[in-house]
TrEMBL record:
Residues 71-305 form the NAD-dependent epimerase/dehydratase domain. It comes from Mikania micrantha. It is a multi-pass membrane protein. Homodimer. Belongs to the NAD(P)-dependent epimerase/dehydratase family. It catalyses: UDP-alpha-D-glucuronate = UDP-alpha-D-galacturonate. This is UDP-glucuronate 4-epimerase. The chain crosses the membrane at residues 21-41. One of its GO terms (molecular function) is UDP-glucuronate 4-epimerase activity. Its main location: Golgi. It is found in: Golgi apparatus, Golgi stack membrane. GO terms for cellular component: Golgi cisterna membrane. PANTHER family: EPIMERASE-RELATED. Keywords: Isomerase, Membrane, NAD, Transmembrane, Transmembrane helix.
């Protein structure tokens, strides 16, 4: 078969070459047109989704009471965050949540909390506080009067396995949020979750906000203590009103499954022994257990008494309040006493394996002075451990069932 190009005249060859170039050119035009149409469609869908999201956010942030506040709650699908969000919404405040639905203790419980919030009209954005574009969208959509920053990587032991998660979640995300708040106009007032873990074995008891808390005893405590220093700096430089809350051992319905009392009830129901730690002198560990409803009252009171931020668009126009409060029960209870109350509620006995502490830096005796919060916030814990554990057991049996233990 002859090659037509070899035996073509110069005119024929030129004609065929021009035809080929024309076809290629037309294909390029087609592809460019198709790509432009596709990108327009994608951008249109993105704008539609963003507009739809903004509409939902505005509806969730709508204030339904006189002198109400509009609050961005980070970690809204978490234990404390979900309870605080529901309490604010119930009294008519505007609430928008953000949560990354991390898998530290499993996503299913967080997703159920989110569904509960949605049922009550609180929208939770699935996103990361470390994402400045997400924060910009939220702050451009709603003029938040307050931020309740509860998102954090929790747990003392997990820090040994994954220290970077604590730096990212407890320090980097805090800075990202503060940067957005300092540039907002108007600036919101900020309440955020520090931790009672900043106190260590070197501190006298009961723990007081006036105590020196350096050096922190664990990596988790170190990230929270660093957060206190960072927030103090932003308060001083940019006029942000900031309140830090040092939470102690919070318990109750919808709680965190990584907490010891969760494993205790699970083992009791399954007929398995539990491990109870003692310090080196064979003294039982004691914790300052605080029921979730009491913590919520402290959080809401902190929001209500913050005082205004004084900056505007990143510039400070005057000094603003900076506060730190202990939020605990002020009445420590030993771990064996807690186990006994669980046994009584379940009408079951459990075998206790008593072992010495592993020396991870955690306190053997946590006892907190809450007089400052009582005076400034009107904070008065009203739920004793026996009552609070009874409510927790009722919820646990309803949610998880008996005796097969928790869902995955």
């Amino acid at each position: 078969m002859e090659d037509p190009f070899i035996h073509s005249t110069p005119t024929q060859f030129k004609s065929r070459r021009l035809t080929s170039i024309t076809i290629v050119f037309l294909w390029v035009l087609f592809l460019l047109s198709f790509t432009a149409s596709y990108l327009t469609l994608i951008n249109s869908d993105h704008r539609f989704l963003q507009t739809s999201l903004q509409k939902t956010v505005r509806a969730s942030a709508h204030i339904r009471r006189a002198n109400g506040i509009s609050v961005l709650v980070t970690g809204a699908a978490g234990f404390i965050g979900s309870h605080v969000s529901l309490a604010l919404k119930a009294r008519g405040d505007g609430v928008v949540g953000v949560d990354n639905f991390g898998s530290y203790y499993g996503r299913s419980l967080k997703m159920t909390r989110r569904d509960l919030l949605d049922f009550h009209g609180v929208f939770v954005v699935d996103g990361d506080v470390n994402d400045p574009r997400l924060l910009s969208m939220l702050f451009n959509t709603v003029e938040f009067t307050h931020v309740m920053h509860l998102a954090a990587q929790v747990g003392v032991q997990y820090a040994v396995e994954n220290p970077y998660a604590y730096v990212r979640s407890n320090i980097a995300s805090l800075v990202t949020l503060l940067e957005k708040c300092k540039s907002a106009d108007p600036q919101p007032a900020i309440v955020w979750a520090s931790s009672g873990s900043v106190y260590g074995p070197h501190n006298k008891v009961p723990f007081s906000e006036m105590d020196q808390v350096d050096p922190p005893p664990t990596l988790y405590a170190s990230t929270k203590r660093t957060g206190e220093e960072i927030t103090h700096t932003y308060n001083r430089l940019y006029g942000l009103s900031i309140t830090g809350l040092r939470f102690f051992t919070v318990y109750g319905p919808w709680g965190r499954p990584d907490m010891a009392y969760f494993s205790f009830i699970r083992n009791i129901l399954q007929g398995r022994p539990i491990t109870v730690y003692q310090d080196k002198n064979r003294v039982d560990l004691a914790r300052d257990f605080i029921y979730i409803d009491d913590i919520v009252k402290g959080c809401v009171a902190s929001l209500d008494t913050t005082g205004r931020s004084t900056g505007s668009g990143g510039s400070k126009n005057g000094s603003a309040p900076y506060r730190i409060f202990n939020l605990g029960n002020g009445s420590p209870v030993t771990v064996p006493a807690l186990v006994t109350i669980l046994e009584e509620n379940l009408k079951m006995k459990v075998t206790k394996d008593v072992v010495g502490m592993c020396g991870n830096g955690d306190d053997s005796f946590a006892y907190v002075n809450i007089s400052l919060a009582e005076r400034e916030l009107g904070f008065k814990p009203a739920t004793d451990l026996r009552t609070g554990l009874r409510e927790f057991v009722k919820w646990y049996l309803w949610y998880y069932g008996n005796p097969l233990g928790p869902k995955s």
